[in-house]
């Protein structure tokens, strides 16, 4: 996410830090590079112009040029202006005074509208709400079937409708009746999409809006389409009056032009972002955290939230004790791998870490691009599962004949078993050292040490199965 833009901006700031003294000339040169980086990231030209003018006005003041760390001051100014461009603060959903709250999900076909509806329903159910899904796409039966399948997978309630209900308005009205009868406080209406905006689509959406007076109308856009997503959002807002935006496929968008442009152009906040295909790959959009990530400062708060949400606290504390007491066994190692797998791709987690002092940009980039093959993880788990309880408790007893037996039982080779044991020994040493280091380092150290989960990430960046 934003990788290309982040790399270019960090190069600009590195060059600024290398200047003996910050002058108007080298500041102008840096601003030109920032402008080019933003335009190449497919940010709307009007947004680029506004942002550069705002940065220039503040950065060329005597206070900045004469300060002890002028380059750092410039980074601070760019960070502040990026946050303003993205939306200053997280924009949360509004709810009706009297339930059920009606939320319309709109957008063009193929933007991820139906999947986002299911993800939003899951997010609401995890945040003390009781949502009801309904698809009113009467033109594509497959779209309604897709939502029904997703609802079943996520154990979410959905109003399917009857064969007689052939109009969007009829389906939505029946869904509202069911929500009232079953005590559901939010109705998510997944509306029909088109390959392009047309009068029939807008008339249908306007009718739904007039009838239900939705608290929110969320426009779903594909981040990969860049300025096309921004134009579509602008047109929908002019004709329908959207209240917020969900940007999908953000995990695959290395440029970030849509995210940086869409609020300034439409005037409406970016509320959620989709970061992958999995149901939990859906987050509230935090402008300040995203600005920090763009500038290489990481997103530690999101990382902590993700760990807290995914990892069992009691197991984490027990793991921390074992690491300190040097009781970390192969069983624990297997459990660690399983729990890390729940956190998502290692590259995504490393992307939330700030660029640490002493770690070169190349090393951080390598860690952020780390890929852990699901099949390889399964193979490691299979090898450990093929060991006896005594072998898992004490890896030192695993001699040549035992290794051959384990390899045969797991469908792997003796070399694979040898590699695993070697990596386990290295990971054990590294995790113990990392655990001890974290326990004395401020807020993040205390938080992560208490959770006891991230030690193994340091090793997985270099893990070879």
Would you spell out the secondary-structure blueprint of this structure?
Layout: H1 3-18, H2 24-40, H3 45-59, H4 62-65, H5 70-86, E1 101-107, H6 113-125, E2 131-135, H7 141-153, E3 158-159, H8 168-182, E4 186-190, H9 199-212, E5 216-222, H10 227-240, E6 244-248, H11 257-266, E7 270-274, E8 282-284, H12 287-294, H13 300-310, H14 313-324, H15 330-343, H16 346-351, H17 361-368, H18 374-385, H19 389-393, H20 400-410, H21 414-438, H22 442-451, H23 455-460
Parallel strand pairs: 1-4, 1-5, 2-3, 2-4, 5-6, 6-7
Antiparallel strand pairs: 7-8
Can you tell me about this structure?
The protein has helices at about 5-20, 25-40, 45-60, 60-65, 70-85, 115-125, 140-155, 170-180, 200-210, 225-240, 255-265, 285-295, 300-310, 315-325, 330-345, 345-350, 360-370, 375-385, 390-395, 400-410, 415-440, 440-450, 455-460, and strands at about 100-105, 130-135, 160, 185-190, 215-220, 245-250, 270-275, 280-285. The model is unreliable at about 355-360 and about 435-465 (pLDDT under 50). Helices cover about 60% and strands about 10% of the residues. The radius of gyration is 26 Å and the shape is flat. The chain has 3 domains: about 5-85, Four Helix Bundle (Hemerythrin (Met), subunit A) (Up-down Bundle); about 100-290, Rossmann fold, CATH 3.40.50; about 300-460, 434 Repressor (Amino-terminal Domain), CATH 1.10.260. Helix 5 (about 70-85) crosses helix 12 (about 285-295) and helix 21 crosses helix 22 (about 440-450). Helix 7 links the parallel strand 2 (about 130-135) and strand 3 (about 160). It contains 23 helices and 8 strands. It is of the alpha/beta class. The protein has an 8-stranded mixed beta sheet, with helices on both faces.
């Amino acid at each position: 996410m934003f990788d290309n833009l982040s790399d270019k901006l960090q190069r600009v700031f590195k060059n600024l830090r290398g200047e003996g003294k910050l002058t108007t000339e080298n500041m102008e040169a840096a601003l030109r590079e920032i402008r080019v980086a933003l335009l190449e990231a497919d940010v709307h030209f009007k947004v680029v112009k506004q942002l550069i003018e705002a940065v220039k006005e503040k950065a060329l003041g005597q206070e900045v040029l004469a300060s002890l760390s002028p380059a750092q001051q410039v980074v601070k100014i760019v960070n502040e202006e990026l946050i303003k461009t993205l939306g200053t603060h997280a924009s949360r959903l509004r709810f009706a005074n009297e339930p059920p709250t009606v939320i319309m999900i709109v957008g063009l076909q193929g933007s991820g509208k139906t999947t986002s509806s299911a993800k939003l329903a899951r997010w609401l159910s995890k945040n003390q709400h009781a949502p009801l899904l309904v698809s009113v796409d009467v033109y594509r039966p497959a779209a309604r079937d897709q939502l029904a399948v997703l609802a079943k997978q996520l154990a979410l309630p959905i109003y399917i409708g009857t064969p007689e209900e052939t109009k969007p308005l009829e389906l939505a009205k029946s869904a509202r009746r069911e929500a009232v009868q079953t005590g559901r406080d939010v109705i998510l209406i997944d509306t029909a999409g088109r390959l392009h905006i047309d009068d029939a689509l807008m008339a249908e959406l306007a009718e739904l809006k007039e009838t239900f007076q939705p608290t929110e109308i969320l426009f779903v856009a594909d981040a990969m389409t860049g300025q096309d997503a921004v134009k579509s959002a602008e047109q929908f807002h002019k004709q329908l009056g959207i209240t917020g935006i969900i940007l999908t496929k953000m995990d695959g968008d290395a440029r970030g032009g849509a995210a940086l442009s869409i609020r300034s152009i439409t005037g409406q906040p970016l509320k959620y972002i989709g970061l992958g295909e999995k149901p939990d790959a859906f987050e509230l959009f935090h402008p300040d955290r995203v600005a920090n990530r763009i500038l290489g400062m990481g997103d530690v708060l999101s990382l902590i939230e993700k760990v807290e949400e995914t990892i069992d606290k009691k197991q984490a504390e027990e793991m921390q004790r074992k690491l300190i007491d040097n009781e970390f066994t192969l069983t624990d190692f297997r459990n660690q791998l399983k729990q890390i797998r729940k956190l998502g791709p290692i590259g995504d987690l490393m992307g939330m870490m700030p660029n640490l002092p002493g770690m070169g940009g190349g090393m951080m980039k390598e860690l952020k691009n780390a890929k852990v093959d699901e099949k390889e993880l399964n193979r490691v788990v299979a090898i450990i599962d093929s060991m006896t309880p005594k072998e898992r408790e004490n890896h030192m007893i695993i001699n040549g004949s035992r290794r051959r037996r384990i390899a045969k039982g797991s469908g792997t080779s003796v070399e694979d078993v040898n590699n695993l044991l070697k990596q386990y020994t290295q990971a054990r040493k590294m995790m113990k050292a990392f655990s001890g280091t974290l326990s004395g380092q401020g807020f993040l150290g205390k938080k992560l040490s208490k959770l006891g989960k991230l030690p193994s990430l340091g090793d997985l960046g270099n893990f070879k199965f």
